[in-house]
Write a structure and sequence with these properties.
Number of strands: 7
Radius of gyration: 23 Å
Distance between the termini: 76 Å
Largest sheet: 7 strands, parallel
Helix content: 55-70%
Length: 326
């Protein structure tokens, strides 16, 4: 009996070792090697962050404010940009009150409106006059919509595209000449998973983020020879005031917190991941749970299933809206 048990244990061990060496090891070993390389690279680049000029749009709240905290604590020269100057002053005051273990630099405030396209190059010029250059341009500012396509006025479609896409493009174009001249710099664009696949009642928002995806993919290739990098970040729901400040089909403020937004990731968590993406020189990053990632792959691998599922989702959402308005 003892010999049989020993023989069974030996057989089990042999099977386990065969599975590990032929299936797990070929995948695990390269993963561990690349992970170690990433960590080493991140540590090396983190040492270069202090003193870098980082411009952040939408810095008055939410993810933009969290990004300001993350990069300020890393020793960067942070430039805070948004429409609401008084909120930028609040963020600046909060940053200066932080306890830090590294040398920090007093944040600079540059109010701007992403929808005022013609003024944006002047804002970049103002920043360049203050700091001389821009190391990292983080295009985070934006606006969302809560309305179906038919009910959305064209003025709303235009405004969303103007803020989310053309505003980002204008700021990026204004930054690029100095970055190309210096042969260094990074453009970071905060997109959304809805820039990779669309959902009902987000046609204007999804279109602006799809446009941003295409712009970044093309730009990345064009400026790679100049050592200027492009990082596109596509988060899922973040616990911010995005839905509160979203537009309705008529252009009014939505003014409600979606349940999906309320249960989203913390801005601080997403901001840390953005910093990691910059440090590791990642080009296209998706920050999402399993469900959005699955939706992305279903959209591309089995589009008919994705379209069917979204049609059902739209029907259910329309029915709930009708019931709500009765």
């Amino acid at each position: 009996m003892a010999d049989r048990m020993e023989s069974n244990c030996r057989t089990d061990y042999s099977v386990f070792w065969w599975v590990f060496s032929t299936i797990c090891l070929p995948f695990t070993l390269p993963y561990l090697v690349f992970k170690i390389i990433d960590i080493a690279k991140e540590r090396r680049y983190r040492e270069c962050l202090p003193g870098k000029v980082v411009v952040i749009t939408g810095a008055s709240s939410g993810l933009g404010e969290a990004l300001a905290h993350i990069f300020f604590l890393a020793g960067c020269k942070v430039v805070l940009c948004a429409r609401r100057k008084h909120e930028l002053e609040r963020v600046r005051k909060d940053l200066l009150a932080l306890y830090t273990t590294v040398e920090t630099h007093s944040p600079v405030i540059v109010p701007l409106d992403l929808s005022d396209i013609n003024s944006l190059p002047l804002k970049i010029k103002e920043i360049l006059e203050i700091h001389g250059h821009i190391d990292i341009m983080i295009n985070n500012g934006g606006v969302s919509v809560r309305s179906d396509c038919v009910s959305t006025a064209m003025d709303v479609d235009i405004k969303v595209m103007l803020v989310n896409y053309f505003g980002t493009v204008a700021l990026t174009k204004a930054c690029l000449p100095s970055m190309i001249e210096r042969k260094q710099g990074r453009i970071v664009c905060i997109s959304s998973v809805q820039g990779k696949f669309s959902i009902p009642h987000r046609s204007a928002y999804g279109a602006s983020k799809h446009a941003l995806q295409g712009f970044c993919d093309s730009l990345r290739a064009e400026i790679s020879e100049h050592n200027v990098k492009v990082t596109l970040v596509s988060p899922s729901y973040i616990r911010t005031a995005l839905s509160l400040n979203a537009l309705t089909g008529t252009g009014e403020q939505y003014g409600r917190m979606d349940s999906t937004t309320a249960s989203g990731a913390l801005p601080k968590t997403v901001a840390k991941r953005v910093l990691t993406a910059v440090l590791r020189n990642e080009q296209d990053v998706t920050i999402a749970s399993l469900a959005p990632k699955m939706a992305y792959w279903v959209r591309h691998l089995c589009p008919s299933l994705y379209f069917w599922f979204m049609a059902r989702r739209a029907k259910k959402l329309n029915a709930s809206l009708v019931a709500e308005n009765k």
